[in-house]
Amino acid sequence: MTGGTEQMVRALAAGAAAEMSVTTRLLHASAAQAADVIEAEGYVFATPENLAAISGLMKDFFDRCYYPALDRINGRPYATLICAGSDGQNAARQIDRIATGWRLRSVAEALIVCTHAQAPEAILSAKTIGAADLDRCRDLGATLAAGLAMGVF
Q1: H or E element in which residue 55 lies
Q2: For 1-153, where are the alpha helices, taking DSSP H only?
Q3: 57: Cα within 13 Å, side-chain hemisphere
Q4: Protein fold of 4-150
Q5: Which of 7, 45, 26 is nearest to 137 (CA)?
Q6: pTM tops 0.85, yes or no
């Protein structure tokens, strides 16, 4: 809604693009289907923190895809990006719990960028993610892609 998570995802994808043997596919949670989850070799779940939780659209994605993908993606790597107004920890825990049920393997701690937006005006305003945080997202993308290419993950 405010662009922060999208900036983080695009930076991550740019980092992953350096690995030519890995194909990166960006899907909005509302468009992603169980077949997309099953087809992928690894995942980055990105969400804004809304009311100290994952976004409703991310929850909808997991609700639609969880059981169709269950026991079909065991052991695959995942990472998490969260654009938070406060600490983002509860949103990270929610994703980790779902990923544990899917028997995915975390390859990095959740990358949380805190915007410190607390007042309604700040929460609803467009976000600009700083260069250092975007570099962290790029690095995570490069690491995940390299690990997939080398068969480490």
Answers
A1: none
A2: 4-16, 34-39, 56-69, 89-101, 120-124, 131-150
A3: 13
A4: Rossmann fold (3.40.50)
A5: 7
A6: yes
Picking from 130, 95, 127, the residue whose alpha carbon sits closest to that of residue 109 is 95
Helix (H) or strand (E) holding 19: none
**Tokens, residue 8:** 């983080």
Domain boundaries, the chain: 4-150
Helix (H), strand (E) counts: the chain: 6, 4
**Type of residue found at 62:** F
The pair phi, psi for residue 11, each rounded to 5°, is -65, -40
CA 63 to chain centre: 16
The per-residue pLDDT for range 119-142, each reduced to its tens digit, is: 999 889 999 999 999 999 999 999
